[in-house]
Structure formats: structure tokens, C-alpha cells
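quick one, 337 residues, struct below
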Amino acid sequence: MTTTAPPAADPPEALNPYRDSLLAGRGTSSGGDKVFSGLVRGASVIVIVLVTLTGAFLLWKATPSLLDNTANFVTDRVWQPATTPPAFGIAALLWTTVLASAFAMLLAVPVAVGLALFITQYAPRRAARPVAYLIDLLAAIPSIIYGLWGIRVLGPVIAGPDSSVRVHIEQALGWIPLFDKTGVSQGTVFLAAIVLAIMILPIITAISREVFDQTPLPNKEAALALGATRWEMIRTAVLPFGKPGVISAAMLGLGRALGETIAVTIILSQPSSLDKFDLSIFYGGETFASKIANNASEFSTPQKTGAYIAAGLVLFVLTFAVNAVARLVIARTARED
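---
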């Protein structure tokens, strides 16, 4: 007669000494976790409140001047906030700000990504760390030093009217209004964009370097095991993994370029006439930040102050929109991956 063994009984409580502690801690959190969670939530609320209050303050101060403005605030280039009634527009300021920042991004992002890949994927560790430190030190240089160096040293060499770089660009692309030849010899948007690119380079490089360095090792080893070259491994494993981080780094750099004040104020030459305007990158002009900084002494009446605060409000909204678009791009990229 065949007998069936009874099913194994559950182990006695004595054989599982950690069961009580695990069950007791399930669904509960320690006091430190609660404190940390409260601090994090409080910090988030504080940031949201500060941003909201800043936008509300700018809108409140700018509204009276905007209501009295006789010019089209978006499309006109005139800037006469002291007249009665005032007349001011931001078309020229918006163009110069966006043009200088966009050209700076065009120069800085490829170089920053290349440096980050070199440090994390190609350079030996003995050389990678000093190179990374040197690039990070660029962020410690004050803005005023960048401005003085740009206008006194870099300008005559790269952006001056007789420099080979500017001459070649004007000869090759001068038929495009963006690269048209102008009579401005110093203080061009071209020079300001180069200096801005150098200023935002360490930010983009540092973040991209950290993201690339966190690429899962099995992903890279799998690509190499399938016969990929080092560049093919980077293209198929490292770059897709680091794409959201690079976008975030680029948007942080763009925010820095949009709001940079001292260096741009020193470099850019102001147009001699308010009626003259040129789309060329070899022309001068003023950004939102440099316009406000150059005319801070004119904040003598609420009317004039409101005009400059309105310009600051546009810069605030522009920066906020850039960051919002970056968040949407990153979220979409994460869903696709």
C-alpha cells in the first residue's frame, strides 16, 4: 500500500527570527523618512510659490506702463518709455537675445557633448580627471572677466572686421541676411555668442559627462560583444541612454545664455540710431538683460520702471517656456525609450 507524504508544514515562527520585524515594519516609515519627506515637499512648495510670486510681481508692475503704451509692444522697435504717453517695443531686444543665445548653443552643445564623450569613453582615467577639472574651472571665472576678455582680446582676433574668421563667413554666407556684412567693427552679436558659448560650456559638459558615465555597463559590453566598434557602441548604447540628460544640460545652458547680463553688456555695441536695425549676426544691439542693466539709472518714475519690468517679464516668460518645452521633450523621449 502506497502512502502519500503529508504536505510540508509551514516553518515555525522560531525558524524565521526576522519575520516579526519585517511584518511590523511593512507599510510604516521611520521618523527620519517622515521628516525628509516633509522637507522635500516643503521645498517644492516654496519654489512654486517663489516662481508664482515673481511672475505676479512683474506683471503687476508692468501692467500700468503696458496699458499706457502707444506702440506695439511685440512688433515695434522704438524704446521711449519717458515720453508722455510712453512708446516702447521689444522686437529688437527679442531678436538680439534669441539670436545670441541660439548661436551660442549651436557652438557650445556639440563641443560639450564631444568633451563629455572623450572624458568618459576615450581618455584614460589619469588624463580624464584633470581635463574634467580644467573644464569645470571655466564656470568659476566671473562674468565681468569674460566680458573684458571678449571685447579686448577675442574680439579683434575672431570677430573684428579684418579677422579671417569673420571675413570667410561673410564671403561664403554673406548673401544670407543673417550673415550680411555690416559696418560694426566691435561689439557684435557674433562675438557675444562666442563668449556665451564658452561660458555655458562647463555646465553642459559637466551634466553630459555625469549622464554618459552612468550608462549601464552591460549595455556597452553587449554592443562590443556583438562586434561593434567603440564609436558604434557609443552611438547605440551611450548616446540613447544619455539623450534626456544632454537635453536637460542644453536647456540649463540656454537659460544661462538668455539671462547673462554683465558680459553681454560689456561686449555688445548699441546701435547709433533707434531706427536702424539689422538682422545680421555681425551687427550690435541689446538683449533684455543688457538693456535693463544699461538703463538701471532711469528707474526714476513708475512709468519708466514699468517699461523695463515689462521687458524683464518677457525674459521671465521666455526662460520659463524654454524649460517647459525641455521637460516635454524629455518626457516624450522617456516614453519612446
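The CA atoms of residues 204 and 249 lie 5 Å apart.
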